[in-house]
Design brief:
Elements lengths: L7 E7 L7 H11 L4 E7 L5 H11 L3 E4 L13 E2 L1 H6 L4 E5 L2 E5 L2 H11 L8 E5 L3 H13 L2 E6 L2 H15 L2 E6 L2 H9 L3 E4 L24 E4 L8 H8 L3 E3 L1 H17 L5 H12 L6
Parallel strand pairs: 1-2, 1-3, 4-6, 7-8, 7-10, 8-9, 10-11, 11-12
Antiparallel strand pairs: 3-5, 5-6
Helix pairs in contact: 1-10, 4-5, 4-9, 5-6, 9-10
The chain binds NADP nicotinamide-adenine-dinucleotide phosphate.
The site of NADP nicotinamide-adenine-dinucleotide phosphate has 25 residues, from helix 5 and helix 9.
Amino acid sequence: MEISGKTRVCGVIGDPIEHTLSPVMHNAAFKHLKLDFVFLAFRVKASELGDAICGMRGLGVHGLNVTMPHKDAVVEYLDEVDSTAKFLGSVNTVLNRDGRLLGFNTDGTGALKALRENGASPDGKKVLLLGAGGAAKAIAYALAKEAGELRVLNRSSEKAEELAGLLSRTFGKKVVGGALSSSAVQRSLRDSDVLVNATSVGMDPNAKQSLVSPQWLRPDLCVMDIVYSPVETELLKEAKAAGARVIGGAGMLLYQGAASFEVWTGVSAPVEVMRRALLNKLGSGATG
Ligand SMILES: NC(=O)c1ccc[n+]([C@@H]2O[C@H](COP(=O)([O-])OP(=O)(O)OC[C@H]3O[C@@H](n4cnc5c(N)ncnc54)[C@H](OP(=O)(O)O)[C@@H]3O)[C@@H](O)[C@H]2O)c1
């Protein structure tokens, strides 16, 4: 890839950022489509977020992915956000359109696409979502439109209840929120078709942890874990052993990235190229 005076710059901002997989995925896609774009990672401290976004405007940076801890705080620096980002109060993608900064959130649609691609469509199904943090909220928003029934359990129960109330009022669907206790997970799982872990439980370096006991898992269950490090979490290993359909966090990562790519370039993302780049980086054995 030759960098010229016309090369468009995209990147990801976050803190920490060294672990990010976005550059490998997006640069592979730009190269494959011979697009004159480059993707970089920028470590931006919380206290410097405003300066970073001013810098985006001043330097004419074309697009950004926004990750922890800036997804919510970035909203106030943008000119406009789409309806999803507005509902969530959270942005993971910024487009610089002729100096106007537009915000989007592609996390929820990314998760939904990963589910569908793996034969785990939530349409009309009973879905149990663990977590009510940033990623969980985006997934809940996408799921609430499609699922027959959505149950959200979170360690801090008030966050789950608030989210469920908001979603049921918005979509007129049955969305229930509650505390993430062992007995609540067991009870809710009994009549669920799809389970999504959107907490950080099971993430390296605590890869042996899971919120779900192996004996509660069944072959007719679809289990998605959005944690992608490790690529196969304890939950997924146990779900696979129980004969359930499993979907790893790499799928959501891929499709939220593909949606961001399309926002910046206006062309269809080369999903298979991006998937290969991502899975190469994550290591073999990745699912989704
Ligand atoms: N695959 C992808 O594309 C993708 C995208 C975004 C994030 N992720 C992954 O998703 C995970 C969550 O990210 P996030 O941005 O949503 O983080 P976040 O906003 O900090 O939320 C963390 C969530 O995990 C829960 N939690 C943390 N420790 C727990 C514990 N010991 N027991 C029970 N619940 C616990 C929190 O509950 P409380 O509210 O009670 O604290 C909260 O619901 C991370 O592992 C992240 O890497 C993956």
